[in-house]
Amino acid sequence: MVREASRFPFFEQGGIPMKIIDAINRIDSLKHNTYTQSDKVAWLSRLDTMVKKHIIDTHEGDVTFTGYDDSTDLQTEILIPAPYDEVYLRWMEAQIDYHNGEYDRYNNAIDMFHTAYSAYENYYNRTHMPNGKKFKFF
Q1: CA separation for the pair 71, 129 (Å, rounded)
Q2: What does DSSP assign to residue 50?
Q3: DSSP assignment, residue 56?
């Protein structure tokens, strides 16, 4: 059976990088909420700050990331590529449930977030050289 990407929004969307506005629109279409776009941009910024600090910065390469705020262009590409970009939806879902005081739902959502986050972290670790110290041999 062939799956259509439009019916399964968590699958890679033709390799198109997700943008801030895409993540916000997708969570709004999947989960009813009353949180502002500004709240969601702040949540995305916090997640990408964690990704940058705990995953990207521990490996070779130079990725510039200064965070997102209300002045950030909503067409800005977020850090985690497809097909791992489900992390953003799971993160925002967990934030919505937490701030609504729906702790059982939050626990389920944060577990799903951790699963998706770990999948991306494992992928990044497999495909990027870790930072290492240069050794001198005697």
Answers
A1: 34
A2: H
A3: G
